[in-house]
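Morning - nicotinamide-adenine-dinucleotide inputs below, output right after.
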Amino acid sequence: MRVVVTGGAGFIGAHSCRAVLEAGHAVTALDDLSHGKREALPPGADLVVMDVRSPQLADEFQRLRPDAVLHLAAQMDVRRSVADPLFDARVNVLGTIGLLEAARRAGVRRVVYAASSSAYGNSERLPKRESDPTNPLSPYAAANALTVPSTFTEASCIGSATERRTSICAARCSTASGRRR
Ligand SMILES: NC(=O)c1ccc[n+]([C@@H]2O[C@H](COP(=O)([O-])OP(=O)(O)OC[C@H]3O[C@@H](n4cnc5c(N)ncnc54)[C@H](O)[C@@H]3O)[C@@H](O)[C@H]2O)c1
């Protein structure tokens, strides 16, 4: 199986590339290196330097023919999202929708992507549950509330009735920590 990991040169992405390789699969990291580092990639991972917003993304997926895409590329800076909400939305909302569309066109069977528990705001009820109401407190959080599986994102993967459907899954991650942070 071949897995494409967007944001693969970032913190969670590089760990994910390593896990995919250790599970015996082939992995290609797709990253614009705006924040990630080439050196973070484990030996054996291929790298495509590309912005997920690129119009060439669909062609790249057609070339790579991945079985699955793990979408971790994101504008991660909450303060930047407040200062420049348009940029945040371009990467985190339109970038995700564009990626889902490119994956569907390339016949990718499965897309898993990282959303964020920031979509729930500062709710004091713990543990947070998937069914909790969203209460985003920044444009970054709002993008993560918008792109969790919904009619919005699922519709992006359905296509016409004759096309193969791509299944999608989002994980609303809490803060991650660990080695090579
Ligand atoms: N780290 C956390 O605590 C945390 C918590 C919740 C959710 N998440 C989500 O997990 C995902 C990964 O987080 P991370 O901590 O590994 O972040 P990170 O910044 O280390 O990695 C993100 C990677 O995406 C790349 N990237 C950014 N914009 C891009 C673009 N337009 N095209 C291609 N590549 C681009 C960066 O170069 C970087 O390598 C993000 O979606 C983030 O919202 C992370």
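Note: Residues 6-7, 9-13, 31-36, 51-53, 72-76, 91, 95, 114, 116, 173, 175-176 surround nicotinamide-adenine-dinucleotide (CB under 6 Å).

O.
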